[in-house]
Amino acid sequence: MRKIKRRVLNKGDTILIDANALAYSAYYTTGGLSYRGENTGVIFGFLKQLIQIAKILKSSNLIFLWDQGNSYRTINYKGYKHSRIEKRKEASPEEKEDQNNFHKQRLLLAKTILPRIGLVNSFSFENYEGDDLIGKLTNQIKGQKIIVTSDNDAFQLLDRAIIYHIKQKKLFSKIDFIEKYGIHPDQWVMAKAIGGCNGDDIKGIEGVGDPKSPTSKALKYLRGELPNGKVLDKINSKKGQRIIKRNIPLVTVPYMEDIMPEMKIRKNTVTRKKLLREFDKWKMVSLMERENFAKWKEVFDL
User: Fold this and answer.
1) In which residue ranges of the chain is pLDDT below 50?
2) Quick one: pLDDT at residue 8?
3) Tell me: the pLDDT tens digits for 173-202?
4) Is the peptide bond before 254 cis (omega within 30 degrees of 0)?
5) Which one of 78, 107, 189, 260 is at 20 to 30 Å from 294 when CA atoms are compared?
6) Mind giving me the DSSP string for 254-292?
7) What is the domain partition of the chain in residue ranges?
């Protein structure tokens, strides 16, 4: 991944945030924090990371996209994310309470805190994943879009957007993708359809594997580098082609775009008063300190 080059970033760029990914990042860093017995670590970590990212990307044009409910993908593929469902069922009482606390804070952010701050573009629709909403908006919104995520499903959107990776804190562009994987972004769906997706429990063709590395057999196949043999025969077989046909819609974003509700984008209304009131409510003193609050003032021209 290339280092961020300031010249490619503009103040008006649209920032499409995989909000669940950012919330989970906060959960694993500051999730243990609380105030007067109420868990606040996810809220604090989310807001802290958010302003850092907004400052780096030089834009206040922030849109938050959230997962909600089970994905429509489970209708067509019963095994979709099956291992995650089973893991939740087998969780201990303490783990279940921990997850409930996470989801409570996630909902507070999406439905209450962000809108009260003035970040009014926070969307979720039943049975859709945040990735699907991001995919739809990359089609809908003009101008440069930057997707904030840690999910490689977004690679297929690199024709229409740039990715900012939450964990690696770097930009990843269409050129970076082509140089790394040797295929075009619009071929990523096919790569995932052939190799499957371990994280989502989507099974690919046996012997191929999830295309996580440039040396993936799925990528070699698409680059015309896969030698004759059993794996190539499996991909070209009738069974292999049926698997690919089944997987293509499962790994494509957006999914079921034709019935997805519209998202009307409004102008954010962040003010100094709103920010300070919300930070004080949750007693997030460090966010109100001069150095940290200066970031909010700079991003939102307060």
Assistant:
1) 2-7
2) 63
3) 999 999 999 999 999 999 999 999 999 999
4) yes
5) 107
6) SSSGGGPPP---------HHHHHHHHHHTT-HHHHSHHH
7) 8-179, 183-251
Judging by DSSP bridges, how do beta strands 38-39 and 196-197 pair with one another?
Answer: unpaired
Could you give the 3-state DSSP secondary structure of residue 199?
Answer: coil
The CATH class given to the 8-179 domain equals: alpha beta
Q: Which fold has domain 183-251?
A: DNA polymerase; domain 1 (1.10.150)
**Tokens at 146, concatenated:** 């930057």
φ/ψ of 34, rounded to 5, equals -150, 165
Note whether 40 and 105 are within 8 A (CB): yes
Contacts of 118 (CB under 8 A, 6+ apart): 268, 269, 270, 271, 274
Under 8 Å CB-to-CB from 270, ≥6 apart: which residues? 60, 117, 118, 119, 296, 300, 302
Over the stretch 191-250, which tens digit does the pLDDT of each residue have? 999 999 999 999 999 999 999 999 999 999 999 999 999 999 999 999 999 999 999 999
